[in-house]
Design goal:
Blueprint (H helix, E strand, L loop, with lengths): L4 H50 L1 H6 L2 H14 L3 E8 L4 E4 L9 H4 L8 E8 L2 E12 L2 E11 L1 H51 L15 H4 L33 H8 L3 H6 L3 H43 L3 E6 L4 E4 L1 H7 L3 H4 L4 H4 L2 H17 L3 E9 L2 E13 L5 E10 L1 H47 L5 H27 L7 E3 L1 H17 L3 E6 L7 E3 L1 H19 L3 E10 L4 E8 L29 H11 L3 E5 L4 H10 L9 E8 L1 H6 L1
Parallel strand pairs: 12-14
Antiparallel strand pairs: 1-2, 1-5, 3-4, 4-5, 6-7, 6-10, 8-9, 9-10, 11-13, 14-15, 15-17, 16-17
Helix pairs in contact: 1-5, 5-9, 14-15, 16-17, 17-18
């Protein structure tokens, strides 16, 4: 059990008082007892010696009456004398003071030796302890008789007991008075210690508005008759002036407490207010709390400023589309922004303190570790473009890694900044595609013109020969084959000419939904023969666009035919329109339930003459023409394969249990009428 400070002082004080009082009482009692006993022994010896000196003459004269009077006077004059008797040299009792007969045994208990004329013994009698004194009566050191005196201890013991009681009462009174005085002192000390403890507890609970020291009766400006209101100690009633820096008294030294205290000790204010040690502790504690409060206020202000700056920096980093990360020299992530979290697909709390092996695949983490180790070794920045895969999509990243240096120039970490350049790469690919198409257009235009003439001649001669060929003959059959294949070649040449010609577009307001409905109404019968169903999801709020309606229709027909060829039979085509608010463009989408496009072919599908269809099923120009139409209208065309999950679910709901394969989604983005005017 814990004992409080006041109880400890009480116990210690009263223990000391008890030990001191007990020791003093015992020591004084012993000294007093020894002194009384010694005084009693001396008195007995004096009585015996006096009796012996007075008994010489009567003893020589054998005057028994005088001897009897001497022993009786000795007993009568001293109340502590129990008996007295005188014997001759032979030990025969001459006179005594006993009533009822002399105790013979008393003669043998004490007898002085020849060399010791004086002897004392303590006897235990019925009346109590008795000191028996035996003294020789002699002339020229020749004994001729003996004096015996018995001195009772009762009186001495009573005196000792009385004095002991008096000493005990005096000691008890002293202890009581000392205890009362000590209690008053302890109580005063305890109150001041309790006050200091309460103040400390209050500070520990976070309340720094404490006042431990007692208030002053007079302040420093009252004592010195100072009225300088510019002095920082003026009207400061809670802190002693020697703790205040920058006081303006003539004798004060500039600076804080440690510089000025030596000069303050001679100041009348210090002498009047410094107080005892506890007062100084309370004053120092109040000043310490006041200083701590000031420092905490400064720290809170600095913390607020630092937090605001951190929040601002974090806001800036989170707002930037670039992903930013900071790693230490042990490759642990110390800070990341929101873009990096989105890239990794984890929360910030799940990234901090982890390394690449906890966030990426083993292959990617090992590649990153090799790059990071080389950067830490060489200190050379790393700049690269890299294609990474996240989920089912691939993204191009432009990456910059820089070493982080401390004040001594040592590398302590790495700062990584990256940007998603997938759109830029897409635009580059589209630009490259456009350049290829332009080159191919120029080339195919010349080729088409050169081939068209001989094809016309071949068809003309074939038709002339058919007129003369016998019906049903092999010759007629062969000529029809030649005519058919020549027509196919002429169609290919016509497609090449359409692809290569750059004709002026007729701009007009186009209702995309109406164009979709008209085209779908034309092709849906043909598609239905192969059990291919067309579903329309048209947004009625889609704005008008400005462009060449015939070319837009051609692009839609190309996308529908491409979807139909991808399905073959038994499938669904979903045609939808919408508004992309982020890009401010009208979207025209065609999704099919076909087998999809292999990933390695997606980058080539817009190339002229590239096709995934079998021989004789397509020229490979449909998507290239559609790509050119989108470009000419200030838009673009995107492709996704397989279908996004949300679109797959829509088709499943509309397809009545039809199994949906990977599928492909083509989306044509075209600027609205408003954006076309602003551009």
């Amino acid at each position: 059990m814990q004992v409080n400070f006041k109880t400890k002082i009480y116990v210690g004080l009263f223990s000391l008082l008890f030990l001191f009082g007990s020791g003093a009482y015992l020591a004084a009692s012993k000294i007093m007892r020894d002194a009384l006993l010694e005084e009693n022994r001396t008195r007995g010896h004096v009585i015996a010696r006096s009796l012996a000196s007075h008994a010489i003459e009567p003893l020589l004269a054998m005057d028994f009456l005088r001897l009897k009077n001497l022993v009786d006077d000795a007993v009568a004059s001293n109340r502590d004398v129990f008996y007295a008797f005188i014997t001759n040299a032979r030990g025969e009792v001459l006179v005594h003071t006993f009533y009822g007969g002399f105790p013979i045994d008393l003669l043998e208990v004490n007898h002085p030796a020849p060399s010791q004329p004086y002897s004392r013994k303590l006897l235990d009698t019925e009346e109590g302890l008795v000191h028996d004194y035996a003294l020789a009566v002699s002339i020229d050191e020749k004994p001729f008789g003996y004096v015996r005196v018995g001195l009772l201890q009762t009186g001495v013991q009573q005196a000792i007991n009385n004095l002991s009681l008096t000493m005990f009462l005096a000691t008890a009174l002293f202890l009581l008075l000392s205890g009362l005085l000590g209690t008053a002192l302890v109580r005063t000390l305890g109150k001041r210690v309790d006050s200091l403890h309460r103040s400390i507890d209050q500070v520990l609970r976070g309340d720094l508005n404490v006042q431990t020291a007692s208030p002053l009766e007079k302040n420093c400006w009252d004592i010195t008759q100072c009225h300088n209101e510019d002095c920082p100690a003026y009207n400061e009633k809670n802190v002693r002036c020697w703790y205040v820096a920058g006081t303006l008294c003539p004798q004060c030294v500039e600076g804080r407490y440690n510089k000025k205290i030596e000069t303050c000790t001679s100041c009348p204010v210090y002498k009047s207010h410094s107080g005892d040690e506890l007062q100084k502790v309370a004053d120092a504690f109040d000043f310490m709390v006041r200083t701590l409060k000031g420092h905490l206020s400064e720290l809170k202000e600095a913390e607020y400023t630092l937090t605001a700056q951190q929040d601002l920096l974090k806001t800036i980093l989170n707002a930037t589309p670039d992903f930013v990360s900071l790693q230490d020299q042990n490759f642990k992530y110390k800070a990341v922004n929101k873009a990096f979290c989105d890239l990794v697909g984890k929360k910030e709390s799940e990234i901090i303190g982890k390394d690449d092996f906890s966030l990426f695949s083993t292959k990617r983490a090992e590649a990153n570790r090799l790059e990071d180790q080389e950067l830490l070794r060489s200190g050379e920045p790393l700049v690269k473009e890299e294609k990474i895969r996240t989920g089912n999509t691939s993204r191009w990243i432009h990456l910059v890694k820089l070493p982080v240096l401390d004040s001594n120039g040592a590398i302590i970490g790495m700062l990584c900044s990256g940007r998603d350049i997938t759109d830029l790469k897409t635009f580059q690919d589209q630009l490259y595609q456009a350049q290829k198409m332009e080159t191919m257009g120029q080339m195919t235009a010349g080729i088409a013109h050169e081939i068209n003439t001989p094809l016309g001649i071949i068809m003309g001669y074939a038709q002339l020969l058919l007129e003369d060929a016998p019906p049903g003959s092999n010759l007629e059959s062969d000529l029809k084959i030649i005519e058919k294949q020549t027509r196919i070649c002429r169609k290919i040449v016509a497609d090449l000419l359409k692809f290569s010609r750059h004709t002026e577009s007729t701009l007009e307001r186009i209702n995309v939904n109406r164009s979709v409905e008209e085209i779908v109404s034309v092709v849906q019968h043909t598609f239905s023969l192969e059990r291919v169903r067309i579903i329309q999801k048209l947004n009625a709020e889609v704005p008008f666009i400005v462009g060449d309606e015939e070319k837009i229709r051609q692009a839609l027909v190309n996308l529908l035919n491409n979807a139909f060829d991808a399905i073959g039979s038994d499938g669904v085509i979903l045609v939808s329109t919408g508004w992309n608010d982020q890009e401010k463009m009208v979207s025209l989408s065609v999704a099919d339930t076909g087998d999809g496009i292999p990933e390695h072919m997606i980058g080539k599908i817009f190339d002229p003459f590239f096709t995934t269809k079998s021989v004789g099923k397509g020229t490979g120009l449909g998507l290239s023409v559609t790509f050119g139409i989108a470009r000419d209208h200030g838009g673009r065309i995107d492709v996704q394969s397989p279908l996004p999950p949300e679109l797959r679910n829509v088709i499943l709901l509309e397809s009545e249990g039809l199994e949906v394969s990977k599928g492909t989604l083509f989306t044509l983005f075209l600027p609205s009428e408003r954006d076309h005017k602003s551009s």
